[in-house]
Structure formats: C-alpha cells, structure tokens
UniProtKB/TrEMBL annotation:
Residues 265-314 are annotated as: Disordered. Residues 272-291 have a biased composition (Acidic residues). This is Pentatricopeptide repeat-containing protein At4g21190.
C-alpha cells in the first residue's frame, strides 16, 4: 500500500488512499521542516474528498489579547476641595442665623459621619481671610452639633469674638472655660484675654486675669509681662514695674523650630541691649578721639601763628 504526501503550508500530513479509521489513527504522523514557524495561526483549506477531522494542524498561538476596561471610576472629592466649596457656599449667604445653619445642614446632609476635618480646614481658611463673622457662625453651629469641642476651637471662637468687639460673649466664654478647667486652662487663653483688655484699656480686669495666673503658678509669656509692665509705667507704678521685671526678667534665648529641628536663638531684646552697649562704646571712643584731636590741633595752630609772625617781621 502506497502513501501520498500532501504539502499544506510548511507542514506535511500523511493521508492514506483508502479510508480506514484504525489505519489513520496508527499511521497519522506529522513532520516539521527546519525553518521557523510563524507565530500566527494559518488556516488550512482541504479538498472536499477528505474530511477535516483527519488533519492535524500545528501553529503557535500568540498572547491572549487584553481588552481595556469598559467602566470608568469617578474622582473622589478630597477634604481640601470640599472645604473650599464650603467656604464659597457660606460667603454667598446673609448673616441670618437660620439661613446659615440651614445651608450648613444641607451641605452635610448626605454624609454618613460629621465631616470634622473638612469643617476645620474651612475654619482655617476663613481665619486666614479674616472672616470673623463666618468663623463665629460656623464654630457655634459645629459646637451645637456636639462636634469639635477642643481647646483649639474655643480659642478660635474667642479670638473671633475679640476681633468683632463682642466683648460680653468673649468674657462669658472665658469665665465658663476657666471655671470648668481652672488649672488645666492653657496659657494662650490668659494671653488672649490680657491682650483684649489691654487694647481696650480695661486695666482692672487685666490685673485680675494676671493675678489668677500667678495664683495658679503659670509663668507669663513675654507679651503678658510687656503689656502689664506698660500699664504699670502708664499709671506711675514704678515700684511694681521694677518688681515685675525682677521676678520675670526678659529671656536672653528662645527656642524655635526650623525645618523640624529645635534651635536655640537669641532674643531680640538681648540683641537690642547688646546693640545699645555697642553704640555707647562707639560714642565713648568717638569722644575720646575728638579730645585727642583737639589737643593735637593746638600746637599746630601756634606753630602756624609763629611762622606768620616771623614772615611779617622779615
């Protein structure tokens, strides 16, 4: 029995002349030529006389095609852009309490939790823009929701009340915080209240706050000592002014944070005092030099007069 080889695009298939399934399964073989086979799969068309199921086709398949994703993700709104949107929404409103509170409630209506970070960033933006009325409104609304009850929020509210000349509300807030916390009241609250009283020349209340500070054992800041000392000098209490400076002398050094590192820096007062001492030394040196020059000039003048007299006699 003879076999017939039929070429099919670089692959040879052995096909028997007589149809016999057992013979086909045993005698069917495949040979590859020495040439490289292209990676693409080539289609083979057989004649109608032979069935395609008895033909073995070998071809290398390429990588599985990857299709791009059909869906698109929406960009999430961050806290910075959301706080900016809150600030823009508030600025367009009037000063009516119901309108402002209603707009703020509608702004957070779809939030599962209270957006405390967003509101804090919005308050910081309003503080930089010196929108004190809006700070008071937003802070009171936030506190009414039971959120953000921190010393930073109360201090920002007190500062805004002082800037808006709402002294009664600032005093009420101060007395409530001082009575509740007392020994744990931060020093910056004393500094702020003394500054408010100092600008309005309310000396008695300023002395009361300073006395409370000394009773608690809190060391006053340089600004507090400066304001109280200025009032003592203005009222003619020089003995108290001297005692104050002796008890709380101005510091020569202070610590500042530069690029995250704590650095010891010389204060301005010490620099000014050193500059004044340098100026005094220079003045003394200048006076001594002037006196020396005067002593040197007198003999020269006498010599000139003698020379002129001799010339005149000649």
């Amino acid at each position: 029995m003879s076999l017939k080889l039929t070429p099919f695009n670089k692959a040879y298939v052995v096909i028997p002349p007589i149809f016999n399934p057992t013979f086909c399964t045993n005698m069917l073989s495949l040979r590859y030529p020495p040439q490289n086979i292209t990676p693409s799969l080539e289609s083979i068309h057989l004649s109608r006389n032979y069935s395609s199921r008895y033909v073995v086709v070998c071809g290398l398949k390429g990588p599985r095609p990857r299709y791009p994703r059909v869906w698109k993700t929406q960009k999430k709104i961050g806290t910075i852009s959301k706080s900016r949107k809150l600030v823009d929404c508030i600025k367009e409103l009037s000063n009516v309490k119901e309108e402002v509170y209603g707009a703020l409630d509608s702004f957070i209506a779809w939030d599962l939790e209270f957006p405390l970070i967003t509101v804090k960033k919005a308050l910081k933006t309003l503080e930089n823009e010196k929108e004190w009325k809006r700070i008071i409104q937003v802070t009171k609304w936030m506190l009414s929701k039971g959120q953000g009850r921190t010393m930073g929020s109360y201090f920002m509210l007190m500062n805004a009340l002082g800037e808006e000349d709402r002294l009664e509300e600032a005093e009420e807030l101060w007395t409530r915080l001082f009575s509740e916390h007392l020994e744990s009241t931060p020093r910056m609250f004393f500094d702020k209240m003394i500054g408010i009283y100092y600008t309005r020349e309310m000396h008695d209340k300023m002395f009361d706050v300073f006395a409370d500070m000394e009773e608690l054992g809190l060391r006053p800041t340089t600004s507090i000592v400066k304001n109280v000392g200025a009032v003592f000098r203005k009222l003619g209490m020089m003995d108290k002014y001297e005692k104050l400076n002796q008890k709380y002398p101005p510091p020569k050094w202070e610590f500042r944070y530069i690029k995250g590192k704590r650095v010891k820096v010389r204060t301005k007062q010490s620099d000014d005092s050193s500059d004044e001492n340098d100026v005094d030394d220079l003045n003394e040196q200048g006076e001594s030099n002037d006196s020396d020059n005067e002593h040197d000039v007198q003999p020269d003048g006498l010599q000139d007069e003698e020379d002129n007299s001799t010339k005149f006699m000649e």
